Description:
By secondary structure, the chain is α/β, with parallel strands linked by helices. It has helices at residues 3-17, 28-32, 36-46, 60-68, 86-91, 101-114, 138-149, 171-186, 204-209, 340-346, 351-356, and strands at 22-23, 55-57, 75-77, 95-98, 118-125, 133-134, 153-159, 198-202, 217-218, 241-251, 256-257, 263-264, 269-274, 292-295, 298-303, 311-314, 326-333, 336-338. It has two domains: 3-225, TIM Barrel (Alpha-Beta Barrel); 241-356, Lyase, Ornithine Decarboxylase, Chain A, domain 1 (Beta Barrel). 28% of the residues lie in helices and 22% in strands.
Amino acid sequence: xxxxxxxxxxxxxxxxxxxxxxxxxxxxxxxxxxxxxxxxxxxxxxxxxxxxxxxxxxxxxxxxxxxxxxxxxxxxxxxxxxxxxxxxxxxxxxxxxxxxxxxxxxxxxxxxxxxxxxxxxxxxxxxxxxxxxxxxxxxxxxxxxxxxxxxxxxxxxxxxxxxxxxxxxxxxxxxxxxxxxxxxxxxxxxxxxxxxxxxxxxxxxxxxxxxxxxxxxxxxxxxxxxxxxxxxxxxxxxxxxxxxxxxxxxxxxxxxxxxxxxxxxxxxxxxxxxxxxxxxxxxxxxxxxxxxxxxxxxxxxxxxxxxxxxxxxxxxxxxxxxxxxxxxxxxxxxxxxxxxxxxxxxxxxxxxxxxxxxxxxxxxxxxxxxxxxxxx
Length: 376
């Protein structure tokens, strides 16, 4: 993983959002599979305290992990927490996103138990559908939320989430932003002259493509980690996935490869077995979809079915390849590069799934951008 590239991507989001916006980098799913401790360190190194409002996660357990790592700043839990987990969130000093009145009541009960005011952000559903208060009824639920919160809770922020900000056409996203603005106008003001609530809507795509829509915060995710966030939002590559060529063998015409014998040598060929497979997060779908690797700077095809622990490539056109060589499945080798989004497209999925699927067996190697990556 290229630390300098991640930090450049983070800075690009901050610059696009403008001087008035702070960031909430998303560190959920083990920082998109790259290692939450290391990514947290990189984020803290790049952003000044005033630029880093909070870090974002999806589960209470992820927030607890950040506390165990020594992070004392805000942690916003963006996915709805199951009822039994809000007490844990309170004990860990986390800030939940709440989507219904029952959730607000449970959070108020946790505040009573803790004997202190607890902060939360209210999610507004503008079309995503999976969570949030309905935008059209903001006047009704807003008053109810304030009444439940009373002196127990601090209604710190409001946010929405876009469903199509990475698509070529941004009209649906602009409509969601308008709905969000109408909901904010209908909400009651903070009680007792409290500081106004922070508002945020922009994910990676909207952060870069719509400059954060002028919100107080932006929430970058996939863009930080090297995944495209739509037209005009192409980041610096961050991740490389490499394995060693463990075995090289010459086979005759007619020899078969892999489970189901789905590949047959059409001539005498030279095959290389890579010490990596779907147990490490390499999608099985890559093989029939024309998956490739880079060996000695040249593209070689993946052949046969990808196994749990092994992947076979055809090295016939790279006769100098030897056991011990590095094979690159994502990343650059010489003048050739296999991009994260290219791999995702061939596998029929998205870059998020590729990154978060990288297995625990793969060592995470963090480079500062001044060294040439070696094999993982």
